TrEMBL record:
GO terms for molecular function: potassium ion transmembrane transporter activity. It comes from the Bacteria. SUPFAM superfamilies: NAD(P)-binding Rossmann-fold domains, TrkA C-terminal domain-like. PROSITE patterns: RCK_C (PS51202), RCK_N (PS51201). It holds the Pfam family TrkA_N. Keywords: Ion transport, NAD, Potassium, Potassium transport, Transport. The lineage of its organism: Bacteria, Bacillati, Actinomycetota, Actinomycetes, Kitasatosporales. Residues 1-117 form the RCK N-terminal domain. GO terms for cellular component: plasma membrane. This is Trk system potassium uptake protein TrkA. Residues 137-218 form the RCK C-terminal domain.
Length: 224
């Protein structure tokens, strides 16, 4: 898979290194000569250019990319890169970094963003996830379809502990995608049973989050 990353700072280089280890073809783009550190990520292609300019993106052959990641420290730049990648080059997947949480509302399909990653929100979510059991934690927002990646750790008192996945009447517009049980990552089947302490990852419509939390949490027991 070919991936172009706009922004060759610490974030962009770290993403590039991870993707290269997984066998992907990476192009790093930055307009600052001081950011071009080929020796830090020698396996990547490098381009000294302004990713907000059509001529630069033509040179980068953005139409050949499967994914574009707008990873600069400037939200305005990330929005422009995302919009150009999607509308001018038809890139199938555009991921954008949100630096200021106040700008999150802009990072949607209108600006060509498929997935918006807010570092402050993600960090706070991970803190919440580390201390919360039975509470729904929003980890990531997907622009298309108003869906989120959410996590809930199943509490000991949940009525669903011991229930098979296929026997649960999940809310509409929700999908259980992963069960993390200790050191294991499970792709859930209908026959798998839910266990107390399981970390459950869902893709869920935002309007269904409260319903999903009520289904899985201790509050459901108190109401029944």
């Amino acid at each position: 898979m070919r991936v172009a990353i706009a922004g060759a700072g610490a974030v962009g280089r770290s993403i590039a290194g991870e993707l290269l280890e997984n066998g992907h073809e990476i192009l790093l783009i930055d307009k600052a000569p001081t950011a071009i550190s080929v020796e830090r990520v020698p396996q990547a292609e490098w381009l000294l250019a302004d990713a907000c300019e059509i001529t630069s993106l033509d040179e980068a052959a953005l139409q050949r990319c499967n994914v574009v990641i707008a990873a600069t420290g400037d939200d305005k730049v990330n929005l422009v890169v995302s919009l150009l990648a999607k509308t001018e080059y038809g890139v199938p997947r555009v991921v954008a970094r949100v630096n200021n949480p106040k700008n999150e509302w802009l990072f949607n399909e209108s600006w060509g963003v498929d997935v918006a990653v807010s570092t402050p929100r993600l960090m706070s979510a991970l803190v919440e996830e580390a201390v919360s059991v039975g509470d729904l934690v929003r980890l990531l927002r997907f622009s298309h379809g108003d869906a989120n990646l959410v996590e809930l750790t199943l509490p000991e008192e949940s009525a669903l502990a011991g229930t098979q996945v296929g026997d649960v009447e999940w809310p509409q517009d929700t999908s259980l995608v992963t069960i993390i049980r200790g050191n294991r990552v499970l792709t859930p089947s209908r026959e798998d049973s839910l266990e107390a302490g399981d970390e459950l990852l869902f893709v869920a419509a935002q309007a269904r989050e409260e319903q999903l939390e009520d289904l899985l949490s201790v509050r459901r027991n108190a109401a029944s």
